[in-house]
Write a structure and sequence with these properties.
Layout (H helix, E strand, L loop, with lengths): L11 E2 L4 E2 H8 L4 H12 L4 H13 L4 H11 L4 H12 L5 H6 L8 H28 L3 H12 L6 H7 L4 H5 L1 H18 L3 E2 L2 E2 L3 H10 L1
Antiparallel strand pairs: 1-2, 3-4
Helix pairs in contact: 1-3, 4-5, 5-7, 7-8
């Protein structure tokens, strides 16, 4: 009933800053009308930043298995645009079995090949950031600690905020917690800002064209 209502106040949830609408949409139990709205949240994503938010919300929701089914549905389509959307979502997810299977496939050297390469890069960068953050938490030497934090800072995106929350609080991490959180928070916001200019890892088309292509799908 409120799907098409615009609110003058934008409420964001958590360090990932997920809009309240998306958070509530994916937190609710699965029902046919809500599934249509969940799909719409991805269909009207005209930039990678929009896809990133929808993907984060879906993974924090009450029905994370829905995202597996949706990505498989997109990638199985004959429509290159839908397949590209599925691959891009797979690259923006937390580590999962389906993305591990889809992204290494040979998607050719054309449009889908470029999309898959960008998705793999996003997925692998998140994995390396996760590793380096865990290495930092295990470090007992201050130089090593900051080396791993600096490495992670160069490639993190919003997914790193969940990793930070779940890290074991070592003496060095506890001592430098606020500085670490601030540095990585700033870095992931910068990454999301860059994604406002791309779609499927490529330069985003004008919004009007993106909307037209979405309607055609």
């Amino acid at each position: 009933h409120v799907a098409n209502v615009s609110c003058v106040i934008r409420i964001l949830v958590g360090a990932e800053e997920i809009p309240l609408w998306d958070y509530a949409l994916f937190s609710a139990p699965a029902a046919a009308p809500l599934i249509e709205l969940r799909q719409r949240a991805f269909e009207v994503a005209f930039t990678d930043a929009d896809l990133e938010i929808a993907t984060l919300a879906a993974q924090r929701g009450a029905d994370p298995g829905w995202l597996d089914d949706y990505v498989e549905h997109l990638v199985a389509s004959d429509n290159p645009g839908l397949r590209a959307r599925g691959l891009s979502i797979a690259g923006l997810r937390y580590a999962n079995t389906l993305s591990d299977q889809l992204l290494p496939r040979d998607w050719g050297t054309g449009f889908l090949g470029k999309v898959a390469a960008a998705a793999r890069k996003n997925y692998h960068r998140a994995a390396w950031a996760d590793k380096w953050l865990h290495d930092a938490a295990d470090a007992t030497d201050a130089v090593e600690f900051w080396r791993f934090i600096t490495l992670a800072e160069g490639i993190v995106d919003t997914r790193a905020m969940r990793t930070l929350r779940e890290l074991r609080l070592s003496p060095l991490l506890e001592e430098h917690w606020f500085t670490t959180w601030d540095r990585l928070g700033t870095a992931q916001k910068a990454r999301s800002k860059k994604r406002q200019s791309t779609l499927f890892g490529l330069k985003a088309p004008p919004a009007e064209l993106a909307r037209f292509l979405t309607r055609c799908e």
